[in-house]
Amino acid sequence: MAKKDQRMSETETEEEETEAESMSESESGSEEQKQESKGGGIDYIMSLPDVPRNLPPHVELQRTRVFANIDAPTHTDSIQYSGAFVSVGLDNSFRLDQFRNNFRVEVIRFSDDGMDMEFDMIGIDPALANAFRRILIAEVPTMAIEKVFIANNTSLIQDEVLAHRLGLIPISIDPRLFEYAENNAPNERNTIVFKLHVQCAKDVEEEKGQSKKKEKEKEKKVPPRITVKAKDLKWLPKGSEFYLESEDSNSNSTSKLKTYTSFTCSQDSLPEFSNNKIGFKEPLDDINIARLGPGQVVLLEEIEDEDAETLKKKCPVGVFDIEDIANGRKRLTVAQPRACTLCRECIRGGEEWEKRVSLRRVKDHFIFTIESTGALPPEVLFTEAVKILESKCERVISELS
Amino acid sequence: MEHGSYADNNNATFSLTDEDHTLANAVRFSLNQDPRVSFSGYSIPHPSDNRVNIRVQTTGAPAREVLKDACQDLMMMCQHVRSTLDVAVADFKLRNPPKKDEDTDMK
């Protein structure tokens, strides 16, 4: 934990530095430019000292940060229009190399089983980050039970409820190995079949017929019950064993009765399935959260001594820490900006606090948390999502040309 | 799927079936960053229709080409995101090797 915190504070200071750099660049950069290009044309004009190369610091801040003020967040929109800064002589149009230079991915953690991960995506527009999130939630394929044939269900759970519950079980099979079934006949390339055959053991004994004495004894006991779990589903590599029609005693045909599936070979023998185990994971929800980046708490002035103590107490998630400085004085530091939930508790105390602390959030910094159900590791899920967006673009391009 | 006038191919509305905010918002973002575009926006005419209308108005270039370029840009960005993530994950796994894997290697 201590390591993590240290890392975070490092990245935070890095960001602060780059911010400061970009602001001072406008002064130092123009002089260098002067010497570089003495030729005419647009380069010369751009190198003139009164042509701004960067946005004024306050506009740059509004462009890159969301401000969480006490009444409402401000500057929440991302500026996309290419000509947004024409009046200051800046081009806001898209350049791939610029995106390539700014874009960064930082993996924060992997769970022990490798099925949960958290990573930061920095330098990407919310439009794209949200597209990835939406695709992860709704469009990355997963395997699930779609059709349930029920032969004899004498349990308390009705057929339709049981079928619905079965459909919610996450199945850990790589869906990339399968084709979409759509309306095709189910075969070994688009279908897997499971059998659920469970019986409450004590009921069986009763059915066999026992003396009345024993039955009376049983009445005193808790009624028999059985807990059915996902592991009770048995995989049938050879396809369904469940006949679609009941056996006709009159017909003399020796042909095999039809089942739901038409497997030509056992799935066991297919090379891709012998390597990939088919089974279930502990039920986990597939949660994909893209959260707008870590909070940025900026102390507009140094807060010391008693004020520091009160502010540290105010924050419910412990963003602040107190540092001892010389002469027995204490100074407030922002120790864990990532923990900030923008609850604004620290600026609630009135205008005096609002003037001293500023809560911000970096607009192009996203925290993705991906929890996989177990079929595919989260990084693969994400790359699949990106591929889906690519194929969508490809579709549009091919339809237009 | 394209609705525009024959005389003027600078302005057009594209109607994409089986798409939603996911693609339309991303395309609008990339269209807006193109200096040739004077206006772009999208709408979903009815929530139960699986289609989006994307409006593109340009300063002179054919709208069809501009939309194509926007999609191309998006694809390039996606490819870069993918490769960057792969590198980041590989780096992370190299730095913190999972304990479980070591156990299985022993067996």
Number of domains of chain A: 2
Strand-pairing-aware structural class of chain A: alpha+beta
Q: What is the mean pLDDT of chain B?
A: 86
Number of strands of chain A: 14
The low-confidence runs of chain B, each spanning 5 or more residues with pLDDT under 50, are 101-107
Count of helical stretches of chain A: 12
Helical content of chain A stands at: 25-40%
**CATH evolutionary superfamily of the largest domain in chain A:** RNA polymerase, RBP11-like subunit
The major pleated sheet of chain A works out as:
4 strands, antiparallel
CATH topology of the largest domain in chain A: Gyrase A, domain 2
Q: Any idea what the CATH architecture of the largest domain in chain A is?
A: 2-Layer Sandwich
What is the highest CATH level, the class of the largest domain in chain A?
A: Alpha Beta
How many domains make up the 3D coordinates of chain B?
1
Give, in order, the helices and strands of chain B: EEHEEHH
Shape of chain B: elongated
Strand line-up across the major sheet of chain B: 1-2-4-3
Secondary-structure blueprint:
The complex is a heterodimer of chains A (401) and B (107).
Chain A (H helix, E strand, L loop, with lengths): L1 H35 L5 H6 L9 H8 E4 L4 E2 L21 H7 L1 E7 L5 E7 L3 H13 L20 H9 L3 E2 L20 E4 L4 H7 L4 H9 L12 E4 L34 H5 L3 E2 L6 E6 L2 E5 L5 H10 L5 E6 L3 E6 L16 H4 L2 E6 L2 E7 L6 H23 L1
Antiparallel strand pairs in A: 1-2, 1-13, 3-4, 4-14, 5-8, 6-7, 9-14, 10-13, 11-12
Helix pairs in contact in A: 5-12
Chain B lengths: L1 E3 L6 E7 L3 H12 L4 E7 L7 E8 L4 H33 L3 H8 L1
Antiparallel strand pairs in B: 1-2, 2-4, 3-4
Helix pairs in contact in B: 1-2
